Amino acid sequence: HGCVASVVGPPGIGKSRIVAEIAEAAARRGLQVSSTYCESHTRDVPFQAATRLMRSAWGVDGLDDKSARDVMVTRVPGAHTADLVLLYDALGIRDPADPLPNIAPEARRRRLTALVNASVVARPDPAVYILEDAHWIDSSSESLFADFLKVIPRARSLVLITYRPEYTGALSRSPGAQTIALAPLDDLHITGMLT
Length: 195
Known about the structure:
single chain; alpha/beta; 5 strands
C-alpha cells in the first residue's frame, strides 16, 4: 500500500537533499520516480505544479504533441474522449482542432482528478512522486494533489512533499501522512558527534 511523507523545514536545512537521496535509492531499485517543484512566481498559474508532475509521471516530457497524445491513450485506457481532451489540454498537448468541453473550472478539476487517481491506483508497478516547495503551490494544483493524496494508500506509491514550516495548506494536513520535521543542529548535537 502507499504512503505520503512530508519533509518540513526552513530554507537551506536539507529538504531537497533528503528527497534527492530517496529518489536516487528508489531509482536504483528500478522504481519510476516522477518529480516537480513549485516556484513563487508561478503561484497564480493554474495547474502549473500538477501539469509538471503529470508530464513526468506519464513520460510525455520531450515528446511532440502527437506522440504524447498517442502515449496518453495507452496510459489512460477507456477514458472518454472529452476527458482525454481535458487531459491533453492540461498537459499542453491538445490538438487545436479538438474543442475543449464547455464545463465549469471545478468540474474540470474533478474530471482531471478522477483520471489521475484512476491511473495511479491501476498502476501495477511501484512509483515515487515528489512535490518540492509546496509552500508555493498554485491553488488548482493544491486541490488536485489533496484529492490525489486520498487514493495513495490504495496505490503502490510513495508521495514525498517538501515545504517550509509556515505552509499550512491542504497538503500539510493529509490524513495518515508521515511528517519529518528538520531543525538545525544545536551545540549539544555537534559536541555529541565530535566525541
